[in-house]
Automatic annotation (TrEMBL):
Localization (cell): Cytoplasm; Membrane
CDD domains linked to this entry: PH_DAPP1, SH2_DAPP1_BAM32_like
Encoding gene per record: dapp1
Taxonomic placement: Eukaryota, Metazoa, Chordata, Craniata, Vertebrata
InterPro entries membership: DAPP1_SH2 (IPR035843), PH-like_dom_sf (IPR011993), PH_domain (IPR001849), PI-Interact_SigTrans_Reg (IPR051707), SH2 (IPR000980), SH2_dom_sf (IPR036860)
Function of the molecule: May act as a B-cell-associated adapter that regulates B-cell antigen receptor (BCR)-signaling downstream of PI3K.
Cellular-component GO terms for this entry: cytoplasm; membrane
Domain SH2: 22-116
Keyword Cytoplasm applies: yes
Record domain PH: where: 151-246
Location, primary (coarse class): cytoplasm
Full protein name: Dual adapter for phosphotyrosine and 3-phosphotyrosine and 3-phosphoinositide
SUPFAM superfamilies linked to this entry: PH domain-like, SH2 domain
């Protein structure tokens, strides 16, 4: 039986989470994915505020080629996460220290292994400028248009219809930036194919196949038919793929 202590006394005083070295405050979903994908490893995780409202948090976890986000709720000092409720912060962090195994609709399993620290050592080294000249003239601040690919990663098994022989085979899919890749299996390092979403015109549910939970991606040269394990999982894939297409169109 644990002994819980709390330093949380209200919004005007220091939040107890500030003592947690891997709590990243208002780090955005985009920034969390950038951190974990560039500098984390499989099983790296961090806690951040959620945009769902006060006392709502997100546990962002690196899962090989994607980052998954899980909801954490705090109410009256108690923390709800997954199927468990913890009576205090100490119990919640102790649970994470015991490397819990998480599973999601994708069918993939993730072990929480390494908390990603809020403070990471960085070298105080700067490059010397050797060349500095403008290659255009007449431009102003209004011509500086911020640009970066939207992250929004996802991965999981889907059943795909073949292009020539119309049979169905299970493949491992990963979504990162504007690329949707599929592999023979999760353990294969090289993808069978990489689909460039900038060439995709539509993502939608499909009812033309004799299968359930199907959706399709429409490209100029081919329409790809995919099936998920459940309607919830199919809906998640469709939502994030449609969001990707909307971001691509905004950048054009």
């Amino acid at each position: 039986m644990s002994v819980c202590s709390s330093t949380f006394s209200g919004p005007e005083e220091m939040d107890e989470l500030e003592s947690v070295g891997w709590y990243h405050y208002d780090l955005s979903r985009h920034a969390a994915e950038a951190l974990l994908m560039s500098n984390g490893v499989d099983g790296s995780f961090l806690l951040r505020n959620s945009n769902k409202g006060p006392e709502c948090f997100a546990l962002s976890v690196r899962a090989k080629d994607s980052v998954k986000h899980f909801h954490v709720q705090r109410q009256n000092g108690r923390y709800s996460f997954g199927f468990n409720e913890f009576s205090c912060l100490q119990d919640f962090t102790s649970h994470l220290a015991n490397q819990p195994l998480l599973g999601s609709e994708t069918g993939s399993l993730i072990v929480l292994r390494f908390p990603y620290p809020r403070r990471v050592e960085e070298p105080s080294i700067y490059e010397s400028v050797c060349v500095h000249t403008a290659i255009q003239t007449g431009r102003s601040e209004s011509d500086l248009v911020p640009s970066a690919p939207s992250l929004g990663t996802k991965e999981g098994y889907l059943v795909k219809q073949g292009g020539i022989i119309k049979n169905w085979k299970q493949r491992w899919f990963t979504l990162n930036r504007n690329e949707l890749k599929y592999f023979k299996d999760k353990m294969f390092p090289q993808p069978i194919r990489t689909l460039d979403l900038t060439a995709c015109s539509a993502v939608q549910f499909d009812y033309s196949q004799e299968r359930v939970n199907c959706f399709c991606l429409v490209f100029p040269e081919r329409t790809f038919y995919l099936c998920a394990k459940s309607g919830v999982e199919a809906d998640e894939w469709i939502k994030i793929l449609r969001w990707k297409l909307s971001q691509i169109r905004k950048g054009r």
